[in-house]
Amino acid sequence: MNNSGKYFLSAFTPSFSGRPPFWLMRQAGRYLPEYKELRKKAKNFLDFCYTPDKACEVTLQPIRRFNMDAAIIFSDILVIPHALGADVRFEEGKGPILKPVQNSKDLELLSRQNFASHLSPVYEALRLTRKALPAETTLIGFAGAPWTLACYMIEGKGSRDFQLPRTMIYKDPAFFIKLVDMLTDAVSSHAIAQIEAGAEVIQIFDSWAGVLSEKQFSDWSIVPTKKIVSAIKKAYPSIPVIGFPRMSGSKITDYVKQTGVDAVSIDGSVTLSWAKEHLQPHTVVQGNLDQLLLAYDKNAMLEEAKRILSIFGDKRFIFNLGHGVIPETPPDNVLALSELIRSYA
Ligand code: CP3
Protein backbone atom coordinates (compact mmCIF):
# COMPACT_ATOMS: atom_id res chain seq x y z
CA MET A 1 0.00 0.00 0.00
CA ASN A 2 1.20 3.46 -0.89
CA ASN A 3 1.49 5.92 2.03
CA SER A 4 -1.49 7.88 0.64
CA GLY A 5 -3.63 4.80 1.33
CA LYS A 6 -4.35 4.47 -2.41
CA TYR A 7 -3.66 1.04 -3.79
CA PHE A 8 -3.42 2.29 -7.36
CA LEU A 9 -0.59 4.71 -6.53
CA SER A 10 1.45 1.85 -5.06
CA ALA A 11 2.41 0.83 -8.58
CA PHE A 12 4.52 4.00 -8.78
CA THR A 13 6.50 3.15 -5.63
CA PRO A 14 9.62 1.26 -6.76
CA SER A 15 9.69 -0.95 -3.66
CA PHE A 16 6.04 -2.06 -4.04
CA SER A 17 5.29 -5.65 -4.84
CA GLY A 18 1.86 -7.26 -4.88
CA ARG A 19 -1.28 -7.75 -6.93
CA PRO A 20 -1.09 -5.20 -9.78
CA PRO A 21 -3.61 -2.35 -9.59
CA PHE A 22 -6.15 -2.33 -12.41
CA TRP A 23 -8.61 -0.18 -14.33
CA LEU A 24 -9.87 -0.36 -17.92
CA MET A 25 -9.88 2.31 -20.60
CA ARG A 26 -13.52 3.18 -21.43
CA GLN A 27 -14.63 1.35 -18.29
CA ALA A 28 -17.68 3.64 -18.29
CA GLY A 29 -19.71 3.34 -21.45
CA ARG A 30 -22.20 1.59 -23.68
CA TYR A 31 -21.46 -1.99 -22.55
CA LEU A 32 -23.22 -1.12 -19.25
CA PRO A 33 -27.04 -1.05 -19.30
CA GLU A 34 -27.07 1.61 -16.55
CA TYR A 35 -24.90 3.84 -18.78
CA LYS A 36 -27.25 3.46 -21.74
CA GLU A 37 -30.20 4.23 -19.49
CA LEU A 38 -28.74 7.57 -18.38
CA ARG A 39 -27.27 8.34 -21.83
CA LYS A 40 -30.79 8.11 -23.37
CA LYS A 41 -31.92 11.06 -21.28
CA ALA A 42 -29.20 13.43 -22.54
CA LYS A 43 -29.70 15.69 -25.54
CA ASN A 44 -26.37 14.72 -27.05
CA PHE A 45 -23.03 13.25 -26.02
CA LEU A 46 -21.24 16.55 -25.32
CA ASP A 47 -24.16 17.79 -23.27
CA PHE A 48 -23.91 14.55 -21.29
CA CYS A 49 -20.18 15.18 -20.68
CA TYR A 50 -20.92 18.75 -19.49
CA THR A 51 -23.59 17.74 -16.96
CA PRO A 52 -21.58 17.24 -13.75
CA ASP A 53 -24.00 15.00 -11.84
CA LYS A 54 -24.48 12.70 -14.86
CA ALA A 55 -20.74 12.59 -15.64
CA CYS A 56 -20.07 11.80 -11.97
CA GLU A 57 -22.72 9.05 -11.92
CA VAL A 58 -21.38 7.23 -15.00
CA THR A 59 -17.81 7.51 -13.68
CA LEU A 60 -18.97 5.66 -10.55
CA GLN A 61 -20.97 2.95 -12.35
CA PRO A 62 -18.07 0.61 -13.19
CA ILE A 63 -16.55 1.11 -9.72
CA ARG A 64 -19.78 -0.09 -8.08
CA ARG A 65 -19.87 -3.22 -10.23
CA PHE A 66 -16.20 -4.14 -10.50
CA ASN A 67 -14.36 -2.06 -7.88
CA MET A 68 -11.43 -1.08 -10.06
CA ASP A 69 -8.53 0.59 -8.21
CA ALA A 70 -9.04 3.76 -10.23
CA ALA A 71 -11.93 5.64 -11.83
CA ILE A 72 -11.39 7.75 -14.96
CA ILE A 73 -13.50 10.87 -15.13
CA PHE A 74 -16.22 10.64 -17.75
CA SER A 75 -15.47 13.22 -20.45
CA ASP A 76 -13.88 13.16 -23.90
CA ILE A 77 -10.62 14.25 -25.50
CA LEU A 78 -12.54 16.52 -27.90
CA VAL A 79 -13.72 18.88 -25.15
CA ILE A 80 -10.40 20.72 -25.70
CA PRO A 81 -11.01 21.76 -29.33
CA HIS A 82 -14.62 22.50 -28.35
CA ALA A 83 -13.46 24.78 -25.49
CA LEU A 84 -11.11 26.57 -27.93
CA GLY A 85 -14.14 27.46 -30.05
CA ALA A 86 -14.05 24.69 -32.67
CA ASP A 87 -17.35 23.34 -33.93
CA VAL A 88 -17.57 19.77 -32.50
CA ARG A 89 -20.54 17.42 -32.70
CA PHE A 90 -21.04 13.71 -32.07
CA GLU A 91 -23.38 11.97 -34.45
CA GLU A 92 -25.09 8.74 -33.45
CA GLY A 93 -23.20 5.83 -34.99
CA LYS A 94 -20.76 8.14 -36.81
CA GLY A 95 -18.53 9.43 -34.04
CA PRO A 96 -17.12 12.94 -33.86
CA ILE A 97 -17.69 15.54 -36.61
CA LEU A 98 -15.73 18.82 -36.48
CA LYS A 99 -15.59 21.86 -38.71
CA PRO A 100 -12.07 21.30 -40.10
CA VAL A 101 -9.23 23.60 -39.02
CA GLN A 102 -6.83 23.50 -41.98
CA ASN A 103 -4.93 26.78 -42.25
CA SER A 104 -3.77 29.79 -40.24
CA LYS A 105 -6.99 31.64 -41.02
CA ASP A 106 -9.09 28.86 -39.48
CA LEU A 107 -6.82 29.00 -36.44
CA GLU A 108 -7.60 32.68 -35.88
CA LEU A 109 -11.18 31.67 -35.07
CA LEU A 110 -9.96 29.71 -32.05
CA SER A 111 -9.04 31.28 -28.73
CA ARG A 112 -8.30 30.63 -25.09
CA GLN A 113 -10.75 33.29 -23.99
CA ASN A 114 -13.56 31.02 -22.75
CA PHE A 115 -11.46 27.91 -22.29
CA ALA A 116 -11.57 27.55 -18.49
CA SER A 117 -15.21 28.57 -18.11
CA HIS A 118 -16.24 26.25 -20.94
CA LEU A 119 -14.54 23.35 -19.15
CA SER A 120 -15.80 24.24 -15.66
CA PRO A 121 -18.48 21.46 -15.75
CA VAL A 122 -15.68 18.90 -16.22
CA TYR A 123 -13.93 20.28 -13.12
CA GLU A 124 -17.20 20.25 -11.20
CA ALA A 125 -17.71 16.60 -12.23
CA LEU A 126 -14.24 15.80 -10.86
CA ARG A 127 -15.03 17.50 -7.53
CA LEU A 128 -18.32 15.60 -7.20
CA THR A 129 -16.69 12.32 -8.17
CA ARG A 130 -13.79 12.70 -5.73
CA LYS A 131 -16.31 13.23 -2.92
CA ALA A 132 -18.42 10.26 -3.94
CA LEU A 133 -15.65 7.73 -4.60
CA PRO A 134 -14.44 5.33 -1.92
CA ALA A 135 -11.36 6.86 -0.23
CA GLU A 136 -9.07 4.09 -1.52
CA THR A 137 -10.09 4.57 -5.19
CA THR A 138 -7.85 6.83 -7.28
CA LEU A 139 -9.37 9.39 -9.64
CA ILE A 140 -7.75 9.70 -13.08
CA GLY A 141 -8.05 12.85 -15.20
CA PHE A 142 -7.08 12.80 -18.88
CA ALA A 143 -6.56 14.70 -22.10
CA GLY A 144 -5.81 13.89 -25.72
CA ALA A 145 -2.24 14.57 -26.83
CA PRO A 146 -1.75 17.51 -29.24
CA TRP A 147 -1.06 15.25 -32.24
CA THR A 148 -4.26 13.21 -31.74
CA LEU A 149 -6.34 16.36 -31.20
CA ALA A 150 -4.77 17.92 -34.32
CA CYS A 151 -5.77 14.78 -36.27
CA TYR A 152 -9.48 15.23 -35.47
CA MET A 153 -9.33 19.01 -35.93
CA ILE A 154 -7.62 18.93 -39.33
CA GLU A 155 -9.49 15.90 -40.70
CA GLY A 156 -12.83 17.00 -39.24
CA LYS A 157 -13.76 13.41 -38.39
CA GLY A 158 -12.28 10.01 -37.62
CA SER A 159 -10.06 8.35 -40.21
CA ARG A 160 -8.25 5.06 -40.78
CA ASP A 161 -4.79 6.64 -41.15
CA PHE A 162 -5.11 10.45 -40.89
CA GLN A 163 -3.18 11.11 -44.12
CA LEU A 164 -4.37 14.71 -44.34
CA PRO A 165 -2.94 15.84 -40.96
CA ARG A 166 0.23 13.88 -41.71
CA THR A 167 0.74 15.64 -45.06
CA MET A 168 -0.08 19.02 -43.42
CA ILE A 169 3.13 18.64 -41.40
CA TYR A 170 5.04 18.96 -44.69
CA LYS A 171 2.69 21.22 -46.67
CA ASP A 172 2.03 23.97 -44.15
CA PRO A 173 4.52 23.61 -41.31
CA ALA A 174 3.92 27.17 -40.01
CA PHE A 175 0.22 26.41 -39.50
CA PHE A 176 0.90 22.97 -38.07
CA ILE A 177 3.41 24.30 -35.52
CA LYS A 178 0.97 27.02 -34.39
CA LEU A 179 -1.82 24.48 -33.97
CA VAL A 180 0.32 22.06 -31.97
CA ASP A 181 1.70 24.88 -29.77
CA MET A 182 -1.81 26.07 -29.02
CA LEU A 183 -2.90 22.53 -28.15
CA THR A 184 0.19 21.89 -26.00
CA ASP A 185 -0.68 24.91 -23.83
CA ALA A 186 -4.37 23.98 -23.74
CA VAL A 187 -3.67 20.36 -22.73
CA SER A 188 -1.24 21.50 -19.99
CA SER A 189 -3.83 23.93 -18.55
CA HIS A 190 -6.60 21.35 -18.72
CA ALA A 191 -4.48 18.73 -16.97
CA ILE A 192 -3.48 21.15 -14.18
CA ALA A 193 -7.08 22.33 -13.70
CA GLN A 194 -8.20 18.69 -13.43
CA ILE A 195 -5.61 18.08 -10.70
CA GLU A 196 -6.86 21.17 -8.87
CA ALA A 197 -10.37 19.71 -9.05
CA GLY A 198 -9.33 16.33 -7.61
CA ALA A 199 -7.57 14.25 -10.29
CA GLU A 200 -4.74 12.24 -8.72
CA VAL A 201 -3.22 10.84 -11.93
CA ILE A 202 -3.28 12.19 -15.51
CA GLN A 203 -3.38 9.99 -18.62
CA ILE A 204 -2.41 11.49 -21.99
CA PHE A 205 -4.09 9.65 -24.90
CA ASP A 206 -2.05 9.83 -28.11
CA SER A 207 -4.42 7.46 -29.91
CA TRP A 208 -3.03 8.23 -33.38
CA ALA A 209 0.70 8.35 -32.58
CA GLY A 210 1.03 5.05 -34.45
CA VAL A 211 0.57 6.61 -37.91
CA LEU A 212 3.64 8.86 -37.51
CA SER A 213 7.05 8.15 -39.04
CA GLU A 214 10.04 7.99 -36.69
CA LYS A 215 10.94 11.67 -37.17
CA GLN A 216 7.31 12.83 -37.00
CA PHE A 217 6.79 10.75 -33.87
CA SER A 218 9.74 12.45 -32.22
CA ASP A 219 8.64 15.98 -33.25
CA TRP A 220 4.86 15.68 -32.80
CA SER A 221 4.27 13.02 -30.16
CA ILE A 222 7.38 13.06 -27.95
CA VAL A 223 8.23 16.79 -27.90
CA PRO A 224 4.72 18.14 -27.12
CA THR A 225 4.15 15.39 -24.54
CA LYS A 226 7.45 16.24 -22.87
CA LYS A 227 6.34 19.90 -22.58
CA ILE A 228 3.00 18.85 -21.08
CA VAL A 229 4.65 16.50 -18.58
CA SER A 230 7.08 19.29 -17.56
CA ALA A 231 4.23 21.77 -17.07
CA ILE A 232 2.30 19.29 -14.92
CA LYS A 233 5.40 18.36 -12.89
CA LYS A 234 6.29 22.03 -12.37
CA ALA A 235 2.87 22.64 -10.79
CA TYR A 236 2.35 19.21 -9.19
CA PRO A 237 5.61 17.23 -8.96
CA SER A 238 4.05 14.21 -7.25
CA ILE A 239 1.14 13.60 -9.65
CA PRO A 240 1.92 10.57 -11.87
CA VAL A 241 1.45 10.96 -15.62
CA ILE A 242 0.62 7.94 -17.80
CA GLY A 243 1.36 8.27 -21.52
CA PHE A 244 -0.44 6.22 -24.18
CA PRO A 245 1.23 6.47 -27.58
CA ARG A 246 -1.08 3.95 -29.19
CA MET A 247 0.21 1.48 -31.83
CA SER A 248 3.73 2.89 -31.65
CA GLY A 249 5.75 -0.34 -31.33
CA SER A 250 9.47 0.08 -30.71
CA LYS A 251 9.19 3.88 -30.85
CA ILE A 252 7.83 3.64 -27.29
CA THR A 253 11.37 3.30 -25.85
CA ASP A 254 12.31 6.85 -26.93
CA TYR A 255 8.91 8.11 -25.77
CA VAL A 256 9.58 6.72 -22.28
CA LYS A 257 13.17 7.99 -22.11
CA GLN A 258 12.38 11.49 -23.38
CA THR A 259 8.90 12.55 -22.24
CA GLY A 260 9.31 12.04 -18.48
CA VAL A 261 6.07 10.06 -18.13
CA ASP A 262 5.80 7.89 -15.00
CA ALA A 263 4.05 5.05 -16.82
CA VAL A 264 3.38 3.98 -20.36
CA SER A 265 0.28 2.23 -21.65
CA ILE A 266 0.95 -0.46 -24.26
CA ASP A 267 -1.21 -2.32 -26.77
CA GLY A 268 -0.73 -5.25 -29.15
CA SER A 269 1.91 -3.41 -31.22
CA VAL A 270 4.61 -4.80 -28.90
CA THR A 271 5.22 -8.29 -27.54
CA LEU A 272 5.08 -8.82 -23.79
CA SER A 273 8.67 -10.06 -23.70
CA TRP A 274 9.86 -6.94 -25.56
CA ALA A 275 7.97 -4.65 -23.18
CA LYS A 276 9.31 -6.51 -20.16
CA GLU A 277 12.88 -6.17 -21.41
CA HIS A 278 12.80 -2.65 -22.91
CA LEU A 279 10.15 -0.74 -20.95
CA GLN A 280 9.59 -2.20 -17.47
CA PRO A 281 13.17 -1.53 -16.24
CA HIS A 282 12.61 2.18 -16.97
CA THR A 283 8.96 2.83 -16.21
CA VAL A 284 5.66 1.44 -14.96
CA VAL A 285 3.99 -0.55 -17.75
CA GLN A 286 0.20 -0.50 -18.20
CA GLY A 287 -1.73 -2.84 -20.45
CA ASN A 288 -2.47 -4.73 -22.58
CA LEU A 289 -5.26 -7.32 -22.75
CA ASP A 290 -6.95 -7.35 -26.17
CA GLN A 291 -10.29 -5.55 -25.77
CA LEU A 292 -11.83 -7.82 -28.43
CA LEU A 293 -10.83 -10.94 -26.53
CA LEU A 294 -12.48 -9.43 -23.44
CA ALA A 295 -15.67 -9.04 -25.46
CA TYR A 296 -15.76 -12.32 -27.34
CA ASP A 297 -14.01 -15.22 -25.57
CA LYS A 298 -14.20 -15.32 -21.80
CA ASN A 299 -12.12 -18.46 -21.25
CA ALA A 300 -9.36 -17.49 -23.66
CA MET A 301 -9.43 -14.00 -22.17
CA LEU A 302 -8.82 -15.33 -18.65
CA GLU A 303 -5.91 -17.45 -19.92
CA GLU A 304 -4.38 -14.43 -21.65
CA ALA A 305 -4.85 -12.29 -18.52
CA LYS A 306 -2.94 -14.94 -16.53
CA ARG A 307 -0.14 -14.88 -19.11
CA ILE A 308 0.09 -11.07 -18.88
CA LEU A 309 0.13 -11.22 -15.07
CA SER A 310 2.81 -13.92 -15.05
CA ILE A 311 5.08 -11.96 -17.39
CA PHE A 312 4.86 -8.52 -15.79
CA GLY A 313 4.61 -9.93 -12.29
CA ASP A 314 4.03 -8.06 -9.11
CA LYS A 315 5.79 -4.74 -9.61
CA ARG A 316 5.87 -1.72 -11.90
CA PHE A 317 2.73 -2.92 -13.64
CA ILE A 318 -0.89 -1.73 -13.97
CA PHE A 319 -3.38 -4.13 -15.54
CA ASN A 320 -5.45 -2.59 -18.36
CA LEU A 321 -6.53 -3.27 -21.95
CA GLY A 322 -4.72 -2.48 -25.19
CA HIS A 323 -7.52 -0.02 -26.01
CA GLY A 324 -11.01 0.82 -24.71
CA VAL A 325 -13.80 -1.59 -23.68
CA ILE A 326 -16.09 -2.05 -26.70
CA PRO A 327 -19.91 -1.76 -26.47
CA GLU A 328 -20.39 -5.50 -27.28
CA THR A 329 -18.55 -6.57 -24.08
CA PRO A 330 -20.63 -8.68 -21.64
CA PRO A 331 -20.32 -7.08 -18.17
CA ASP A 332 -19.93 -10.65 -16.86
CA ASN A 333 -16.59 -10.96 -18.66
CA VAL A 334 -15.38 -7.78 -16.98
CA LEU A 335 -16.47 -9.19 -13.62
CA ALA A 336 -14.58 -12.44 -14.25
CA LEU A 337 -11.47 -10.47 -15.22
CA SER A 338 -11.63 -8.27 -12.13
CA GLU A 339 -12.04 -11.33 -9.88
CA LEU A 340 -9.03 -12.98 -11.50
CA ILE A 341 -6.82 -9.93 -10.98
CA ARG A 342 -7.96 -9.45 -7.39
CA SER A 343 -7.14 -13.05 -6.52
CA TYR A 344 -3.64 -12.81 -8.06
CA ALA A 345 -0.96 -13.41 -5.46
O1 CP3 B 1 -14.19 5.44 -19.43
C1 CP3 B 1 -13.37 6.21 -19.98
O2 CP3 B 1 -12.35 5.82 -20.55
C2 CP3 B 1 -13.61 7.72 -19.83
C3 CP3 B 1 -14.30 8.35 -20.87
C4 CP3 B 1 -13.68 8.55 -22.26
C5 CP3 B 1 -14.49 8.72 -23.40
N1 CP3 B 1 -13.68 9.02 -24.45
C6 CP3 B 1 -15.97 8.61 -23.42
C7 CP3 B 1 -16.64 8.38 -24.73
C8 CP3 B 1 -12.35 8.69 -22.65
C9 CP3 B 1 -11.09 8.55 -21.84
C10 CP3 B 1 -12.37 9.01 -24.04
C11 CP3 B 1 -11.16 9.30 -24.81
C12 CP3 B 1 -11.26 9.45 -26.27
N2 CP3 B 1 -12.25 10.04 -27.00
C13 CP3 B 1 -10.22 9.09 -27.16
C14 CP3 B 1 -8.90 8.51 -26.74
C15 CP3 B 1 -8.98 7.06 -26.51
C16 CP3 B 1 -9.25 6.24 -27.72
O3 CP3 B 1 -10.36 5.67 -27.79
O4 CP3 B 1 -8.38 6.20 -28.61
C17 CP3 B 1 -10.65 9.41 -28.46
C18 CP3 B 1 -9.89 9.19 -29.73
C19 CP3 B 1 -11.94 10.03 -28.35
C20 CP3 B 1 -12.76 10.61 -29.44
C21 CP3 B 1 -14.05 9.91 -29.56
N3 CP3 B 1 -15.07 10.00 -28.62
C22 CP3 B 1 -14.48 9.05 -30.58
C23 CP3 B 1 -13.66 8.67 -31.79
C24 CP3 B 1 -15.77 8.65 -30.26
C25 CP3 B 1 -16.69 7.81 -31.12
C26 CP3 B 1 -16.38 6.36 -31.00
C27 CP3 B 1 -17.30 5.69 -30.02
O5 CP3 B 1 -16.80 4.90 -29.22
O6 CP3 B 1 -18.50 5.95 -30.09
C28 CP3 B 1 -16.12 9.22 -29.01
C29 CP3 B 1 -17.38 9.07 -28.26
C30 CP3 B 1 -17.30 8.58 -26.86
N4 CP3 B 1 -16.39 9.01 -25.92
C31 CP3 B 1 -18.18 7.65 -26.25
C32 CP3 B 1 -17.77 7.51 -24.91
C33 CP3 B 1 -18.40 6.67 -23.86
C34 CP3 B 1 -19.37 6.99 -26.94
C35 CP3 B 1 -20.46 7.98 -27.20
C36 CP3 B 1 -21.79 7.66 -26.56
O7 CP3 B 1 -21.89 7.02 -25.48
O8 CP3 B 1 -22.79 8.06 -27.15
Characterize the structure shown.
The chain is built from 17 helices and nine strands. The protein has 345 residues and is α/β, with parallel strands linked by helices. It has one domain: TIM Barrel. A seven-stranded parallel beta sheet has the order 1-4-5-6-7-8-9. Helix 4 packs parallel to helix 8, helix 11 runs parallel beside helix 12 and helix 16 packs parallel to helix 17. The mean pLDDT is 97. It binds coproporphyrinogen III.
Write the layout of secondary structure elements.
Blueprint: H1 7-10, H2 33-40, H3 45-49, H4 52-66, E1 70-72, H5 79-83, E2 88-91, E3 95-98, H6 104-108, H7 115-118, H8 120-132, E4 138-144, H9 146-155, H10 163-171, H11 173-196, E5 201-206, H12 214-235, E6 241-245, H13 252-259, E7 263-265, H14 272-278, E8 284-289, H15 291-296, H16 298-312, E9 317-321, H17 331-342
Parallel strand pairs: 1-4, 4-5, 5-6, 6-7, 7-8, 8-9
Antiparallel strand pairs: 2-3
Helix pairs in contact: 4-8, 9-11, 10-11, 11-12, 12-13, 16-17
The protein binds coproporphyrinogen III.
